Amino acid sequence: MSASLTPFLQLASQTVRDPREGARRVLSLRVPEGLLWQALVLVVVVSVLLTSLGELLVPAPVDPLVPVFAANPMFTAVVQGGLLVVTVYAIHFIGRALGGKGDFAGALALTVWLQFIMTLLQVAQTVFLLVLPPVAGLIGVLGIGLFFWLLSHFVTVLHGFTSAVGTFFGILVSMVAIVFAVSVLMSLLGITLQGALPDV
Questions:
Q1: Lowest-confidence range among 61-65, 104-108, 110-114, 178-182?
Q2: For residues 171 and 148, is the Cβ–Cβ distance under 8 A?
Q3: What gap in Å lies between CA 82 and CA 74, rounded to an integer?
Q4: Which residues of 2-13 are buried (b: 16+ CB within 10 A; e: fewer)?
Q5: What is the tens place of the pLDDT at every residue in 162-200?
Q6: Structure pTM?
Q7: Contact 156, 163 (CB under 8 A)
Q8: d(CA 143, CA 156)
Q9: What span, in angstroms and rounded, lies between the C-alpha atoms of 128 and 124?
Q10: Taking the alpha carbons of 15, 178, 194, 192 in that order, is the dihedral positive or negative?
Q11: Do 174 and 89 form a contact (C-beta atoms < 8 A)?
């Protein structure tokens, strides 16, 4: 098992050091879409399991949403999987609308690869929850920065953009717009998290 993971771990390490080259290598593999969707499901399942394990190790989270997700792993998997699917479509369609040249399969491949790297980081965070909890918190903060760092370079390579900084700000604007649209849609449908959160 460890031997079969070694090439992926090596590519993940290279991707963190040089995101653009890592993205190019992933895109060059031309993995079939069917296999990519299976990989997406797999990384979501592993991530949810790690989240549940983290909740067991640290049963007093600061975020009030954590108990809601921890109480229902299936709901967590659906939400996380849904967010990844939205990410794939957003990378593809918004990127194309802004003049990008990437295809849907590339957007899917890079989203899965990004989630794989974040899952590796989650593994490290879970280990440090056992041995050195303060470092686990620091890893979580660094993970946010790493996510945007990698995503900006991935989208830049996929769509042939010139500036990762410009891509980063485009991602931020797109995220705000998507969150706003989803919030409006949920309000129109009468869907809220009221009752799921504890009274404060």
A1: 61-65
A2: yes
A3: 12
A4: eeeeeeeeebbe
A5: 999 999 999 999 999 988 887 887 777 765 554 444 443
A6: 0.85
A7: yes
A8: 20
A9: 6
A10: negative
A11: no
